[in-house]
Amino acid sequence: MIIETWNEKETFDVGKSLGDKAEKGQIYTLTGDLGVGKTVFTKGLAEGLKITEPISSPTFTIVQIYESGRMPLYHFDVYRIGDVEEMEEIGYEDCFYGDGVCLIEWANLIEEILPEDIIPVTIEKDLEKGFDYRRITIGE
Ligand SMILES: Nc1ncnc2c1ncn2[C@@H]1O[C@H](COP(=O)(O)OP(=O)(O)O)[C@@H](O)[C@H]1O
Ligand SMILES: [Mg+2]
């Protein structure tokens, strides 16, 4: 599925509609260049899950867990991971196979431990369509 957005709010709302419908055990991967709107999308997803805490970047902690919503959100940013063993150390399996929703940024770096049944989300710009245009691809 491809959704085009033309401003920040529309991208937020795409995330929110996924969060509204999210079911426990779902794992989303989130791919896109710096500044494309990954955090905007994540904030929308969190809103859809009724999370009330502010969403920040998990870069320095690898995973940030939000538990104020209707189910936990495990927000991973694995950019700084050296080895997948670090994922074992933080107990990723409790998140991947747990009672909430996972959102993983830079998931390609941990491909070997990703379950088959993930939902890839890719956000891209197309400057020919304008500075604020984004194309969001959900699923294969
Ligand atoms: N259609 C759009 N969707 C999302 N963000 C947009 C859009 N148009 C412009 N922006 C801007 O792009 C930036 C995205 O930032 P951010 O979500 O932090 O990116 P990332 O987390 O991918 O690095 C914000 O400043 C936002 O206002
Ligand atoms: Mg970000």
UniProtKB/TrEMBL annotation:
Pfam families reported for this sequence: TsaE
GO cellular component: cytoplasm
Predominant location: cytoplasm
MF terms in GO: ATP binding; metal ion binding
Localization (cell): Cytoplasm
GO BP term (any one): tRNA threonylcarbamoyladenosine modification
Source superkingdom: Bacteria
The keyword DNA-binding belongs to this UniProt entry's keyword annotation: no
Sorted UniProt keywords: ATP-binding, Cytoplasm, Magnesium, Metal-binding, Nucleotide-binding, tRNA processing
InterPro entries: P-loop_NTPase, T6A_TsaE
NCBIfam families in UniProt: T6A_YjeE
Similarity comment text for this entry: Belongs to the TsaE family.
Name of protein: tRNA threonylcarbamoyladenosine biosynthesis protein TsaE
UniProt source species: Robinsoniella peoriensis
